[in-house]
Amino acid sequence: MTFQTLTTIALTLFVAFKDVHAVTPSPGCGQNQASGTVSSTTTVNGKRRSYITNVPANYNSSNPYRLIFMFHGWGNSASAVANGQQGFLPFMGLPPLANGEGDPIGAISVAPEGLNSAWANSGGEDIAFVDQMIKEIESRLCIDQNLRFSTGFSYGASMSYAIACARAKQFRAVAIISGAKLSGCDDGGRRDPIAFYGQHGSSDGTIPIASGKQLRDTFVANNGCTKQTVVDAAAGSGAMVKTQYQGCKKGFPVTWVSFDGGHTSTPTTRGAAKSFTPDETWVFFRQFT
Ligand SMILES: *[C@@H]1O[C@H](CO)[C@@H](O)[C@H](O)[C@H]1NC(C)=O
């Protein structure tokens, strides 16, 4: 073997290793144990803001966790997301999946409260709120700073989209559940890639599916995926159709799910006892370790 070959192998191994194992522990690692659901308030640009944090019962401050933000829809609240009201599953159904025995990392869930029950993100004030929450949460809890995620429904999905645009380097992936561009997309002209899951009902009468596709197509482009023609779930089919885009930059996949249904965070396929949203969101998020 030549030196060059060895160098190539070493580099390949290094890159592969780095991809899988890079952990950036937050300042909260090694601090006091804590678990349960806690409400916090803070001040951002002179405005009082609040959020609810869920820490799993078996939390161990020696281990860096995923951090998952979950933004409520217009007229909903953080407590509706936390408690599973107003059409939401508790913390969008993710804690039982993320903190099950099968997952070695686990997740801390955060339900933030919007101003006037919305996410207008005027002048970037909601992105500033996100920055502030990250700082506060990561100073007291052990988070892997490479494993921050955001999801949300409707206006809250739009807020997750604003995060995908403005904080692509701080977050690993987003899951946009029935969203539109309602909270802006201040990407500073950088068009950074971020792993993107989008989901929308074919017959959504509140936010048309075309709006969800616009968000998706922004990241199909930013992530360098091959454009393709996607046929959405047909009305009356009772189905969901999942498309995984090909050719995306490594580590920046795009998944699109359309379903036969309207404006809901918990759609089901015909005959199914429970919604596919938590499972599909978790399958997308858990690939990042
Ligand atoms: C917490 O995790 C560390 C590192 O994995 C382990 O050594 C320790 O025993 C764990 N503590 C508890 C209480 O499980």
Characterise this structure.
By secondary structure, the chain is an alpha/beta fold. The chain has a domain of 186 residues: Rossmann fold (3-Layer(aba) Sandwich). The protein is 28% helix and 22% strand. The protein has seven helices and nine strands. It has a nine-stranded mixed sheet with strand order 1-2-4-3-5-6-7-9-8, with helices on both faces. Helix 5 links the parallel strand 5 and strand 6. The two termini are 33 Å apart. The relative contact order is 0.13. It binds 2-acetamido-2-deoxy-beta-D-glucopyranose. The site of 2-acetamido-2-deoxy-beta-D-glucopyranose has 3 residues, from loops. It comes from Rhypophila decipiens. Belongs to the faeC family. InterPro entries: AB_hydrolase_fold, FaeB/C/D.
What descriptive keywords fit this protein?
289 residues; Rossmann fold; disordered N terminus; 28% helix; alpha/beta; binds 2-acetamido-2-deoxy-beta-D-glucopyranose; 9-stranded mixed β-sheet; 7 helices; globular; 9 strands
SSE topology sketch:
Blueprint: H1 3-21, E1 36-44, E2 47-55, E3 65-71, H2 78-83, H3 95-98, E4 107-112, H4 125-140, E5 143-153, H5 155-166, E6 173-177, E7 195-201, H6 209-222, E8 240-244, E9 254-259, H7 277-286
Parallel strand pairs: 3-4, 3-5, 5-6, 6-7, 7-9
Antiparallel strand pairs: 1-2, 2-4, 8-9
Bound molecules: 2-acetamido-2-deoxy-beta-D-glucopyranose (NAG).
Per DSSP E runs of 2 or more residues, the count of β-strands stands at 9
Whole-angstrom Rg: 19 Å
The quaternary organization reads as single chain
Largest beta sheet: strand ordering: 1-2-4-3-5-6-7-9-8
How much is the average pLDDT? 93
Query: Could you state the CATH homologous superfamily of one domain?
Result: Alpha/Beta hydrolase fold, catalytic domain
Small-molecule binders here are: 2-acetamido-2-deoxy-beta-D-glucopyranose
The assigned CATH architecture of one domain is: 3-Layer(aba) Sandwich
